[in-house]
Amino acid sequence: MTATRTEASSWVVQVQEALHCIGYAVVEDVLDPVFLAVTRDRMYQAQERIVSEIGEERLSAAGELGVLRLMMKYDPHFFAFLEIPEVLNVVDGVLSDTATLHLQNGFILPSFPTVSTPEVFQNAFHQDFPRVLSGYVASVNVMFAIDPFTRDNGATLVVPGTHQRTEMPDRTYLARNAVPVECDAGAMLIFDSTLWHAAGRNTSGRDRLAINHQFTRSFFKQQIDYVRALGDAVVLDRNPRTQQLLGWYTRVVTSLDEYYQPPDRRLYRKGQG
Questions:
Q1: Euclidean distance between CA atoms 213 and 80, whole angstroms
Q2: Is residue 142 within 8 Å of residue 187, measured between CB atoms?
Q3: How many CB atoms lie within 10 A of CB 142?
Q4: pLDDT confidence of residue 271
Q5: pLDDT tops 80 at residue 1
Q6: Does residue 42 come out as left (phi exceeding 0), alpha (psi in the -120 to 50 range) or beta?
Q7: Residue 115 has pLDDT above 90, yes or no
Q8: Integer distance in angstroms from the first to the last C-alpha of the chain?
């Protein structure tokens, strides 16, 4: 399902309905070409810094293909994705205004000949949130196509209607019914995090870039403690809504002094943005 942004309220309703019925939706023309070009450059720069800090050997041992974690630590450009109105509209409409960022991962998916693409977790069918809670939507993914998504360059494969299921569908069914999400650069792919999906195989001869965000209800732990990872000063330099998404208002107290605070100074409260 592809939504158009003619009215802020109507396209969000379309997205909500698509998530309920088939598990995913695409919203076109969210990011402009200039922002995309900057993002593409910054992703390669972040990749260089991550490799320099962590090392190729440790990254390879993780069994991932071109995954960039904690990009905000290496370049503040990536905070901008948490301020995009369309992202906030989805988070508010599908989850709530107290939701937090579970993860932000960049993908620089390399190209391989068809027969030699490594078998890794990304290109096996999986759920990003393997907890089905009687239809309660606790997590949503918002992925941006930094490059166009095509069949040849590893467009994300989704299996419509496989969200909110307590058991894994038959693997043959997944393979036969998977649909590559083809869209232009700048589009936003939104899906229920319980939807079965996989990275496609990139045989295009060039990298395919994307950035995935997963947002969850505020009472679920983040994959990375962004407040600790980025530092108080960095988080406090952002606007209150971004602070909420990063987890500033969902921290756990570590002393009685932190516990006995007035409502406006508590570590766990509703965001102010």
A1: 12
A2: no
A3: 24
A4: 47
A5: no
A6: alpha
A7: no
A8: 30
